Amino acid sequence: MKRLSLLIKTAFLPVFMLILGWGELKAQSANVALNHGDGWYRLILGGHPRAGGEISIYGGLGNNKLTLIKLHATFMGYSQYGSIEIVENLFYNGNHVAAIRSGTTGGGLSALDFHFVGITGTPTVVVEVDGINMTIADPPEYEPVAPTGVTNISGRVLGISSVQWPVYFGNKVGIGTSIPSEELEVNGTIRSKEVKVEAAPWPDYVFSADYSLKSLEETEVFIRENNRLPDMPSAKEVAENGIALGEMNAKLLEKIEELTLHLIEKDHEIKELKSQMSEVLKELKVK
Known about the structure:
Blueprint: H1 2-20, E1 25-33, E2 39-46, E3 50-60, E4 66-76, E5 82-92, E6 97-106, E7 109-116, E8 124-132, E9 134-142, E10 148-154, E11 159-162, E12 173-175, E13 184-186, H2 216-226, H3 235-241, H4 245-286
């Protein structure tokens, strides 16, 4: 299997890329000096509107600082964006690649920039590329004009950034767990500005004329016998299975709407009682 994979990479893939017009697979390596301290360095130039492959950067950054970052990137000219996937990220005495960006530099060409921090002196890093239409910039351009059609990612993560295309996972995803039982399972806290849940049916049916509204007496009996509201899960069920947010929100709204109907009914009864009391008081005054 390894021989077959190597054969595909070394023989068939280059021919396939040439047919598509991407260019030739090319491996390069260079010792690149970072002579200007912290900041953005344009390390990779895309010599064609389409470029991509594997990039590795490693070495010492002075003051006993080491870094090794490996990524897969595709970047395109004409502001067509691309993707950056960091697959390995090791460092010592601090993370030294704070951010990475790719994009269009003009004339339909593209580039890959790295933002280094924590540099001491004028260190040298090893830059290795293995891919299509990529050239190591040696010396690199320091603080270049930011590209357009930018795809960016923090240098302090493992993961993927994609602007042009959605990121797809074909199986269950677990965060903090290696055996997810749902499409996404998180063993911890989720923090979000907004959560959108699709829930159906929504309980507008409570206000239908044919809805069977339990009386308060029936509800009281059910609560005494079951220690919970009708049509709601028990504490044991929730402890074992959790709750589905969409379904639970619908159930809670159903109970609120039922309470509203009971309140309207009681309001009518109170008004009727007030009217009857007013008539009684009038009769008493006459007598």
